[in-house]
Specification:
two-stranded antiparallel ribbon, 188 residues, alpha+beta, 3 helices, OB fold (Dihydrolipoamide Acetyltransferase, E2P)
């Protein structure tokens, strides 16, 4: 009786495993398609340059997820104007011991100097629309990490190459001028 019970139990276990293996499984992935610089500037209703003063998480959707509220003291608007201080919502974040991760969402810390490309109170293209302004290690002048695709002229295609060594930080003034050039339509 003991061996028959073990045999039946093993068969049931094997059938259960086979049944679980046959069930359809939803596969989910996030794919971020690089946004062209011209498209980024055009899609943004507001482009703000400033310093992050506060970062904190809050519950959304009846405590189903967390988003981060980022407050920025704006020193300059390259496009639009929302006043001297703005607060943006970034998907994902932390509240107490709970954390929600949203792939592609940028992370901020108080003190970060940033240029944000915004539509409503959200960043266009997630991390693609958030640029850190950092001093150059040699000259100390402010620089911005080069956008993945910064071609201003839409007639000149630009390939996206992972780890491209030509993609280097650009001077903040050059970056700002490129934004203004796209806004003015000079790059058409």
């Amino acid at each position: 009786m003991g061996s028959r019970f073990r045999y039946t139990h093993r068969v049931r276990r094997l059938l259960l495993c086979a049944l679980c293996a046959c069930l359809p499984v939803a596969v989910r992935a996030t794919v971020l398609i690089p946004i062209e610089f011209r498209e980024l500037v055009t899609a943004a209703s507001v482009i703000a340059h400033g310093r992050v003063t506060d970062v904190h998480g809050e519950w959304t959707d009846g405590r189903r997820s967390v988003e981060t509220l980022v407050t920025v003291d704006v020193s300059d608007y390259l496009k639009g104007n929302l006043g001297p201080t703005l607060t943006i919502h970034v998907p994902g974040g932390r509240v107490g011991r709970y954390r929600t991760v949203f792939v592609g969402a940028p992370e901020f810390r108080a003190g970060d100097e940033v240029v944000l490309f915004l539509r409503a109170n959200r960043i266009v293209g997630l991390s693609q629309g958030a640029f850190r302004v950092v001093p150059d290690s040699q000259s100390g002048r402010p620089t911005v990490a080069s956008p993945i695709v910064m071609s201003i002229n839409p007639d000149v295609p630009e390939a996206v190459v992972r780890g491209d060594s030509r993609r280097k930080p650009v001077a903040f003034d050059t970056f700002r001028d490129a934004v203004r050039q796209v806004i003015s339509g000079a790059g058409r």
